[in-house]
Task: inverse folding
C-alpha cells in the first residue's frame, strides 16, 4: 500500500490557487487516484516503488495494465505537482543547466508557458531530463507519465480543469502565467541534484 503525501496548509498559495481548490484537488482528486491504485494493487505481491512500477507494468495481467497505469500516473503526477509548489529559490547548479539548455531562465519560462498553452485537453506540462541528461519541456495527455518514455520528470504543471477552473474558469492562460509565482525552485533543484548524484 502506498501512503499519501501530506498537505495541511491549503491557503499557502493564495491568491494564485485558492484554499478551496487546493482542498478539493488534494482530497478529492489526488486521494481518489491513490485509493484506486492501492485497490488495484492489493491482490498482487511486488517490491517496487511507484516509479519502478511504471517500468515493470508487464508483471500485471494485460487487461489491468491501462487502469493501473492511469491511476499510477495520477498519483505520480499529482505528487510532483504538489511538491513543486512553494517559494524557494533555484540552486546555482540548476540555474546553470537551464542557461545551458534554454539560453536563460527567461527563455525557459517563455518556452514552458508556450508549451503549456499548446496542450489540448487534459494533461500536464513537464520539465524533464532526457537520456542525454539535457532538460526538455514536454506535454503529456491525461495521466501519462514521462517515466514511460525513459524521461525523468523534475517539475510539472497540472492542466486538468480541476486544478484551476474554480479559480480561473476558462482563463487557463492566466493560471499558467501565475504558476511561476508559486514554484518552489529549491525543491525542483533538489530533485535535479539528486538525479545528478546518481548518474
Result:
Amino acid at each position: 500500500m502506498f501512503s499519501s503525501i501530506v498537505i495541511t496548509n491549503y491557503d499557502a498559495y493564495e491568491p494564485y490557487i485558492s484554499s478551496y481548490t487546493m482542498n478539493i484537488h488534494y482530497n478529492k482528486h489526488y486521494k481518489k487516484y491513490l485509493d484506486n491504485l492501492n485497490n488495484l494493487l492489493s491482490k498482487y505481491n511486488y517490491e517496487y516503488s511507484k516509479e519502478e512500477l511504471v517500468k515493470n507494468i508487464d508483471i500485471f495481467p494485460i487487461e489491468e495494465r491501462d487502469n493501473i497505469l492511469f491511476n499510477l500516473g495520477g498519483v505520480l503526477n499529482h505528487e510532483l505537482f504538489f511538491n513543486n509548489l512553494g517559494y524557494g529559490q533555484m540552486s546555482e547548479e540548476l540555474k546553470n543547466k537551464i542557461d545551458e539548455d534554454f539560453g536563460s531562465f527567461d527563455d525557459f519560462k517563455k518556452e514552458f508557458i508556450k508549451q503549456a498553452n499548446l496542450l489540448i485537453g487534459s494533461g500536464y506540462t513537464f520539465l524533464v531530463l532526457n537520456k542525454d541528461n539535457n532538460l526538455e519541456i514536454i506535454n503529456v495527455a491525461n495521466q501519462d507519465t514521462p517515466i514511460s518514455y525513459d524521461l525523468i520528470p523534475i517539475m510539472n504543471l497540472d492542466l486538468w480543469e480541476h486544478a484551476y477552473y474554480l479559480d480561473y474558469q476558462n482563463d487557463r492562460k492566466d493560471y499558467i502565467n501565475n504558476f511561476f509565482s508559486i514554484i518552489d525552485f529549491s525543491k525542483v533543484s533538489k530533485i535535479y541534484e539528486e538525479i545528478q548524484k546518481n548518474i
Remarks:
- The two ends are 29 Å apart (CA to CA).
